[in-house]
Amino acid sequence: MNKKGSLVSVGLGMTLGAHITPISRSIIENADVVFVAASNNLVEEWVKGMNNDVRSLQPYYDEGTSRRVTYNKWIDLIMGEVRAGKNVCGAYYGHPGVFAWAPHETIKIAKEEGFLAYMEPGISAEDCLFADLGINPGTKGCINLEATQFMMKHKSIDPTSYLILWQVAIAGDISLAKFSTNSKYKQVLLDKLYESYPKNHEIILYECAVLPIDQPRIEKIELSDINNVEMSLKTTVVIPPSHSSEVDKKRLKIIQNL
Q1: Annotated catalytic, 185?
Q2: Residue 64 pLDDT
Q3: Of these residues, 67, 92, 206, 217, which one is catalytic?
Q4: Residue 92 known to be catalytic
Q5: Banded model confidence at residue 39, pLDDT cuts 50, 70, 90
Q6: For the chain, which domains are there?
Q7: Cβ(34)–Cβ(45) under 8 Å?
Q8: Active-site residue flag, 93
């Protein structure tokens, strides 16, 4: 039997008011307390209109402090209310389970302690990216990687598929404490990309719209120009295929003879 108290992590989507599901809205409206992590103050104010007890998690970010420390503070705050027997909602921009550690970890802890806990999806930045750029990931394939993870680990990429790199603005930050990294870090990223792509390969800088009046950022540049453009934590780098994949004639023949 579940203990008294519960936790639901919901997605707010990316664009204010446009992407939230009816289920997620209902959970926010009926929660005893809502903790919100949004990318824009207007989004937080909008969430406050749905519930009388909405608490922002954004103030706990502090440049120079590891984000892991920040996220553990979030977990302590959220679990403190769950343990007090309250029905708690964690409301996160985008999808609460995509490139987000704290929502997964909080649900894991809540479940281990015997509380009802689950996640409701939301529209993620990736969903907006596919729509805005007209990319069908099923046509040529798609690989999603966090930029620093791509730099630091032996990750295989396929230049015949799309490569989507997230959080390039903080590429190379192994401290988890920076809000941006300089050109020296990004040069390490470029040197690894040059192993698979030509320097003049056309890439796309993408940022989805947060407000309904906004337009997405869709900026095409050459790969070598990454160090010459402004990027924020919202900027995603999309690297289209550099060439087409070849048909595996051996397996094709096997299939044809089945």
Answers
A1: no
A2: 86
A3: 67
A4: no
A5: confident
A6: 6-123 (3.40.1010.10), 126-239 (3.30.950.10)
A7: no
A8: yes
* Contact partners, residue 93, CB within 8 Å, separation at least 6: 11, 12, 13, 14, 37, 38, 39, 40, 43, 122
Q: Which of 55, 61, 92, 93 is catalytic?
A: 93
**How do strand 116-120 and strand 54-56 relate by DSSP bridges?**
unpaired
- Distance in angstroms (rounded) separating the CA atoms of residues 1 and 73: 28
pLDDT for 126-179, tens place per residue? 999 999 999 999 999 999 999 999 999 988 889 999 999 999 999 999 888 888
Euclidean distance between CA atoms 237 and 168, whole angstroms: 7
Q: Which residue in 98, 159, 146 sits closest to 125, CA to CA? A: 98
Amino acid at site 191: D
Secondary structure of residue 14 in the 3-state scheme: coil
DSSP 257: T
Q: Which of 25, 55, 71, 251 is catalytic?
A: 71
